[in-house]
Amino acid sequence: MRIAVVAITRHGIALAGRVVAALPGAQLFAPDRFRAEAENAAAGAAHCYAGKVGDQVPALFAAFDGIVAIVSLGAVVRLIAPHLKGKETDPAIVVVDEAGRFAIPVLSGHLGGANALAGHLATALGATAVLTTASDARATIAVDLLGRELGWTLAASHGELVHCSAAMVNDEPVALVQETGSADWWAGHANGRDGPLPANVRRFARIEDVAIDDFAAVLWISRRAMPAALAARLAGRCVTYRPPA
Questions:
Q1: CA 92/CA 191 separation, integer angstroms
Q2: What is the DSSP secondary structure assignment for residue 91, as one 8-state letter?
Q3: DSSP run (H or E) holding 78
């Protein structure tokens, strides 16, 4: 990820140096009046600007995949609000307090990677990642991220993703059918998982083995086409994952 680290106070810039060191290739952005502090904190990676930090937001949104802001959460919300477009395109944004105690994903936690970025920063800074996304807070399956680390592609409509995600976090019965692909996906899933699979998930080896009416949602990992006899019955409540050949 291309990461911008934004800090606007002396103490924040000092912490930003540690953040930049923990994120290879990250760039620090700070007010021009703190140029000396910024260059000392992130030699060779410091960029200083004149004027307001809010004026930098459009360029940062355009140039970076993620932004770590050592700025108050409320201020960050106000700064980014006019520039938000959608979770598929907005950068990951994480707020870190000046004491380095908390890393808080604010935007694009899942698809944009803010949750994972917060987790990495928490480890590097000895901080706590404040994850409010239901699947991460409860360490269950994030339906929209399953297999992403393994190169799996996802086939589902927005409605199917919403339905299956809701079934997962609300502990409704979910069938997970894995017909192909690496079986070693749970420990590396999303921001890391340990322990057993969620109690509401039941595993199957073939889609034909699933008693469809017993499950609120089906997660199907396969390279083949959906059997015609099942397609209509699963419409609206199945997400398909395609592992690479």
A1: 14
A2: P
A3: helix 73-80
Give domain limits for the chain: 3-132, 148-242
139: number of Cβ within 10 Å: 16
Reduce the secondary structure of 125-151 to three states and give it as a string: HCCEECCCCHHHHCCCCCCCCCCHHHC
Q: For 163, what's the count of Cα atoms within 13 Å in the CB-facing half-sphere?
A: 16
Q: What span, in angstroms and rounded, lies between the C-alpha atoms of 46 and 50?
A: 14
pLDDT tens-digit series, residues 101-157? 999 999 987 778 888 899 899 999 999 999 887 777 777 888 988 988 889 999 999
Give the right CATH number for 3-132 from 3.30.930.10, 3.10.180.10, 3.40.50.11220, 2.40.50.840: 3.40.50.11220
Residue 121 CA to residue 204 CA, distance in Å, equals 37
